[in-house]
Structure prediction request, 1074 residues.
Amino acid sequence: MLFRKGNWNFVRNIVFVDKNRQKYKLVASIFSPRRMGMRLRTFIIRRALLMIPTLIGVTLLIFAITQMFTPEQRAASFLSGEPRRPDVIPRIIQTHHLDDPIYIQYYHWMSRVLQGDLGFSSYSHLPVLASLLQATPATIELVMFAIPITIIMGVYLGVVSAVHRDTIIDHATRFLSIIGWSLPTFWLALILLAIFYGQLNWVSAGRLSFEQMRFVASESFTKYTGIYTIDGILNGQLWITLDALKHLILPVITLTIVQIALIVRVMRSSMLEALGKGYTILARAKGLSDDQVVNKHARRNALIPIATLSGILAAGMLTGVVITETCFNYMGLGHFAANAAMQLDIPGVLGFSLFTGIVFVIANLLVDIIYVFLDPRMRLG
Amino acid sequence: MSKIIEVQDLKLRFYTYEGVVKALEGVSLYVKNGETLGVVGETGCGKSTTGLSIFNIVLPPGKIEEGKVLFKSRRGKTVDVLKLSERMLPWVRGRDISMVFQEPSSSLNPVYTVGNQVSEVFFQHRKKEMIQNVLKKLENNIHEAGATSLRGRIYKAERNIYQKMLRDPNSTFLKVISRIPIINRYKGRLEKEVRKAVVNLFTELGLADPERVFDMHPHQLSGGMQQRTVIAMALACHPLLLMADEPTTSLDVTIQAQVLDLIRELKKKFSSSVLFITHNLGVIAEMADRVAVMYAGNVVEVADVREIFKRPVHPYTKGLMESIPRPGKEYKTIPGTVPDLINPPSGCRFHPRCAYATPICTKVNPELIEIKKDHFVSCHLFGGDIE
Amino acid sequence: MDVTEFKKSMAPTIKELKFTIGRIKRSPLSIIGVAILTFYVLVALLAPVLAPPNPRDAYIMPHSSWDPIPRPPSPEHIFGTTYQQYDIYYGCIWGTRTAFRIGFLVVLTVLAIGLLIGSISGYYGGIIDELLMRFTDIIYAFPGLILAMALVIALGRGLDNVLLALVLVGWPTYCRVIRGEVMRVKQEDYVEAAKAMGCSDFRVIVRHILPNAIYPILIMASLNIGSVVLTAAALSFLGLGSGPSYADWGQLVANSRDYITGNYGNMFAYVHAFTIPSIFIFTFVLGWNLVGDAFRDILDPTIRRR
Prediction:
C-alpha cells in the first residue's frame, strides 16, 4: 500500500510543504545554477577570485616583515637546534638564497610556504606548521562556543536595549557592556581564574583534568577532530565531553564579556533604526502584537549589519584568544603565539601571523556569503 | 446616515528638545458610512498625524492629550479607540480600520516575501475562518481514505490538532508541538489555505501572475505592484474604514490613475468607507465625497466636494482654490509661510496670512460651526462673532 | 558693526554648542567618563608632586633591592612592590603619563596619516584609490594584536617600537573611514558649488569637506585611545613592551606574571601586584570609552535630535 503513487503524494504534502521554501531554493541553487541561483553562484565565484590578490598581499606583508631581519637571523629559522659547525649558517644563506635580490627571495620563500614549510619553531622544537596545526583544534573549540554565545547574547541585549530606550535597562546594559569592553583581558582572565580555581576550586586550568588527559592520550581514545567535546561524543565517552565543557566555561566567559559590547552597540543602533522605519509602523497598523513587530519585523532587518560585524568580531576573538589561552593554560594557537613571542621565536610568531592572515581572509569570504543569504536585496547583485 | 468614525476634539503634542510642538489642536471630523472623506492640507498641517491617531498609533515623542475617537465596530458597539487597552487594539487595527501609507517601498519589509507579509494579516485576523476551511478539507480526506487506514489516522490526528487550535489557540500543547521538526508540518495545511486566499486577493486587485508575486520580495516588484500589495494587506479583512495617506504621491501618473480606480472599485465591492489624506487637490476632486481642509493642526472647513471647489468659504480654502494654476489665469499664491507649531500664532492660526483678519482673530481660535447643511467652517467671519 | 555681525554669524554654532553641553550634562554615563578623565589628567600633571621623580630618568621606576618576591602594601610602598621590588605606586603615577603619551601619540599620528591619505584617496578616486584600498585590505586581514606582535618581534622591543607598530596597524581604519566620509560629502551640493566658484582642491577639502566629515572620526579617535592603551598593555604582558623597569601599567602587570598564582598556600598572596595596575588600565580605558560613546550619541547628526 505504501508504494502506491497516491500515498507518496500525500507524504510529500505533509513532509515537504514548507513555508521556508525560499531557504531550500537558495541552498539548492548553489548546486543547480539554472534555477534562481544563477547569480548567486557567479557571485560566490567572483568573490572567491577577488580573495586571491588579498592572499598574495598577505604573504607579501609577512615577507616584508621577514626582510627586516638580517640574513643570519633568517638562516637561524632553518635550524632545529644549535649549529654544530661554524660554516652552517653561511651555507644555509647560500642554499636558500637569503642574500639574493628581493624578488628571488620572495619566489623561494613562497614556494617553501606553499609546500607547508614555515620554518622551525625554537619554542616548540617542531616545524612551525606542525605546531600550528596541532594547536588549531583547541582554538576552534574555544571559538566555536564563544562566537555564537557572544552573538546570541549580544543580539538579545541589543534588542532589549533598543526597545526600552532611555530607560534604566538601556543605560544599565550599555554601561555593563562598555565595562566589559574596557576590561583588560588578562586581568579578567586572571581574576576569574583566581576566584573559581584558586578559591572555589570548581574548575581547573587547561583543557582537561589530569585523569581525562591521560585517558585521551591512551589507546582507547581516538582523536577524530582534536576537539574534545566532539571527540568525547564520537567515542561514546561523555565524561570527556563534560570535562572539556567544564574547562571551557571560564575562557568562553572571558572572551564573551570582553567582546559583547561590540555586538550590543551595533545591534542597538540598527534596531533603533529599524524600529523607525515604515514597515514597523505598517506592522503595527496591521494589528500585529508588539512582540511580533519587534521580533519578526524589526529584528530580522536589524540583524543584517551584524553579519558584517561578525568579521570584526572574529578578529577581536582571535586577539582575545592570544591572551586568554595564555592565562588559562589552554593549549591552542593563542597559547603558542604568546609563548613564541615571549621567547622571541621569530619563525613561530611570523608563521602564526601568516597562518592567521590566510584563515582570516577565507573567513571574511564566508561572512560575505552569509550576508547575501541574510539580505534578499543583495541577491540580484 | 450613520457615522462610522468620529474624531472629537483631538489634541496631540510632540515633546521635543526645541519645545512642545502643538501638532493637533482640537481636530474634529467624522466619516459617514460608505463615503469617502478627503483630508486636504499642506505638508505639516497634521493630516498624517490625524490618520495615525485614529487607531492610536502615536510616534514618540508625541502624546495624545485629549480627545475621543468614536468608532462604530462591526458588532454595532461604539468604542473610543483611544481608550482601548493594548490588548484590544489589535482587534481594531488591521481588521476594522486599516491604513495604506505613502511610500510602498518603505512600507514593505524588504527581507520577507510579499506573500508572507499579506498572509500575516490573515493569520492575525482571519485565522478561525481559515482553520475551518482546513477542517472541512480534512473531513473530506478522512472520508476518502477511510477512518482506519494509516492515512486516515494521520488525517484524524491533524484534524484533532486543528480543532484544538480553534478551541484553545494559546495552549501550551500547541506551542510545544509546533516546535518539533517533523510533527510541525501540520502547519503546512493552514499555510496553503492562507496562500490560496491571498492569491485570490491578489487577483481581485489586478496583480498579474499572483502565484509568482506571492513568492517575490518587495524590491522585485514595481511601485504600482507594491502599492497594490499594501492595499491588499489593508483590505484583507474587509475593513469598515480604509485610511489612505497619500497612496499615489510616489507613483507615476498613469499608475496613479489605476490605483485610484482600484480603490474606488474595492470601496464599492467591500462597502468600506475611505479616509483619503492628500495634498493633491486633483485627486481629491476625483475621489472624495466630502472634504475636510486642515491648516496648522486645525480643521478649517468641511463640506461636500462640489461645495468646497465651487463655493469655498474659509479664507484659506479660498486661497487654495485660487492658487490652482489655470491656463490664462494669473498665478496667485497665499502670502506668508506655514507657522512654526512650537510657537503658533495666537488665536486663529491662519490670521497672519489672512486678508480678512480682524482683532478677535488674534485672540480666540474659532470653533467649527455648521453654517449650512453639512458645511462646517472654523472662522470668525461666520457665526456671529463679529459685529 | 563687525562684532555684532560676527555674533550673528556665530549664533547657530553657539546654539549647537549649548545643545551639546546640555546633552552631555543629561547623560550620566558621559559625566562619569568626563570625571574619570579629569582625574587622570590631574594625576598626570601632578605626577612630580605625587611621586617624586627618579633623578636620572623619571620613567624608570625606583627599586630598593633586587628581591624578586612582590611585597604587599606597606607604609613606604603604598601599593606594594612587584618583582624586583619596583614600587607600584610610583609606576602607576608615572604610568599615567606614559598612558597618555601612548594614546595621544598613536592616535594623533594615525589620525594625521588617515586624514592625509584618506582624503586624497576619497577625493580623487581612480587608480590611487583602488591601490590604497587593496593595501588597507591586506592590513585588515590581520587581527590587530597579532600583526603588532609580528612587527614588534621584527623591530625589537621597547616603547618606541611598540608605538610604531601600533601606528602601522591602526592607520588603515582611519584611512577607510575618512575616505568613506569624504566620498559621501563629496557628492553634496555645497561642494559642487564651491568647486564651481573656483576654489582650489585643497581649499575645498579643508574648508568644506573635512569639517562635515569630521564627526565620526572624532568619535572613533576617542574610542581608539582606549583600545590603543589596551593593546599596548597586552603587548607588554606578552613581554614585547618596554623593559621591566619602565613606568608603564602593562609593564607592571607583566612584571608580576610569574606570581599570578600566588604561593602554595594562598592564591591571592600577590594579587595586588597585577590588580592595582590593571585597575588603572581599566578605569583609564573606561573613561575614554564612556566619553567616546557619549560623543557618538551626541555628535552623530542623525540621532542627535531624538
Notes: Chain B has a mean pLDDT of 84.
